[in-house]
Amino acid sequence: MAADPSDLVALFEVDEMGDLPDRSWNVAPTDLAPVVVEPPSRDGTPPARRLEAARWGLVPTWAKDLSGGVKAINARSETVAERRTFSASLGMRRALVPASGWYEWRKPEKTPFYVHADDERPVAFAGLYSWWKSPEGAWVLSSTILTADATGQLADLHDRMPVVLGPELWDTWLDAETEGDQHLVDAVVEAAAEQVESLVLREVGRAVGNVRADGPELVAPAPADAGEPDASTDAHG
C-alpha cells in the first residue's frame, strides 16, 4: 500500500481518517494496513465513512488472543458465510482494503509478479473487519481479504485471487444496511471477474519474498539476471 493517505481519502470519499501506518511496498500478515469502513450510525445520522489502520489477519470478537489472526489473512468466498470466524463480520462489518497492487508467485518455478491496475490507481479488495478487546481493555481493529478461484490471466499465476471490487460496488459492500450473506458474496465475486482483464502483471525481483524488504524498488521490473531465489528469503503471498 504505497499510495498517499490523502489520495485514498479522495478516491474512497472518506469522511474521517484515523492514524495510519507509513506507506509500504511489502505488507506482511499482522502488519497494519489501511481499510475503509462504514460502521452503522447509532444516533440516526448518516454513517461516516472512515479510513483506519487494521491488523492484517482477522481476530473475531470471541478470540482468546491475537494468534488466530495469522491464519485468517484471507477468507474463502465460497465458505465465508458459514465460517464462524467470518460470518458475523460478513453480516455488518464489511470493508474495502485498498492496495496499490499485490504480489503473486507463479509456480512451479516460483517467479514473483506484481499485479496492479493498468492506470496505477489503488484497487479495492472486498474485505471484512472486526474489533477485538484485549484482557487489558485495549481495542484492536483487524481485517481479512476475500479470495475466489482465479480467472483469466490470473489463473496462470495461482489458483486463487483476491476479490477486487469495481467502484460501482463500493457503496453496496460497505453499507451495513445491506444484508451480508452468501448471495451478496457470490454477486461481488461474479462482478470481480470482470476486473481481471484490466490488471497488469509485471515480473519483479525475488526480494519481495523477504518480509523485511521494503521500498519502491520492489515493484520495479525484474533484472534480466534475477537468478535463483535466496535461501534466506521468507516467501509470502
Account of the protein in words:
With 237 residues, the chain is α/β, with parallel strands linked by helices. It has a single domain (5-219), classed as SOS response associated peptidase-like (hypothetical protein yedk fold), CATH 3.90.1680. Helix content is 14%, strand content 28%. The chain contains 4 helices and 11 strands. The protein has helices spanning 5-11, 84-92, 170-174, 182-192; strands at residues 16-17, 32-37, 50-56, 74-76, 94-99, 102-106, 111-117, 123-133, 139-149, 160-162, 199-203. The strands form 2 sheets. Strands 1, 2, 3, 4, 5, 8, 9 and 10 form an 8-stranded mixed sheet that branches. β6 (102-106) and β7 form a beta hairpin. Mean pLDDT is 92; it is low at 227-237.
